[in-house]
Design a protein that fits this description.
This protein is an alpha+beta fold and about 140 residues long. The protein contains 1 helix and 10 strands; from the N terminus they run αββββββββββ. The strands form 2 sheets. It has a 5-stranded antiparallel beta sheet with strand order 4-3-2-1-10, with no helix packed on it. A hairpin with a 3-residue loop joins strand 1 and strand 2 (about 35-40). The longest helix is centred in the N-terminal third of the chain and has 21 residues, at about 1-20. It is globular, with a radius of gyration of 18 Å. It starts with a helix and ends in a 7-residue tail after the last strand.
Length: about 140
């Protein structure tokens, strides 16, 4: 009985630290090939990472919040979009969440577009159901 009680106390003491870490998350999702896109804050910086789930990221960029371009509540036809762009030299990484404003069920859809010299190279769609957080949370 004593070890169980000790374990409960230990877990209760850890909860504030777990919650503080979770609050740093802005957005993450899984894409094809078991890879993950993640956007979080750390010490006031915005961290973008991309790579295999559970492994060291293939790419990790740290930027001051002022260096991250945001475009929120962009309305165009049926869609409302929020986007974030993180630049790295000639390359840019644009995360865009779109919602069909007219649809009966409002399901957000997020994608990552990799650009070179502002020209699209490729787009990866987040797997439905894997999205956690929201791009607009960068302003929290």
């Amino acid at each position: 009985m004593f070890p169980k009680k000790l374990a409960c106390i230990f877990l209760a003491l850890l909860m504030p630290f777990v919650q503080a870490s979770a609050n740093d998350l802005i957005f993450k999702c899984d894409v094809k090939n078991h890879k993950q896109i993640s956007l979080h804050t750390k010490s006031g910086d915005v961290i973008y990472s991309f790579g295999r789930i559970g492994e060291k990221p293939e790419l990790e960029l740290s930027r001051k919040k002022q260096q991250v371009e945001t475009n929120f509540e962009n309305l165009s036809g049926r869609c409302a979009t929020n986007s974030i762009i993180i630049r790295n030299g000639n390359y840019s990484y644009r995360l865009t969440t779109s919602i069909d404003r007219i649809a009966d069920i409002q399901e957000p859809s997020t994608s990552l577009t990799v650009m070179k010299n502002d020209k699209d190279l490729t787009t990866l769609q987040c797997i439905k159901g894997s999205e956690v957080g929201a791009l607009i949370a960068i302003d929290d």
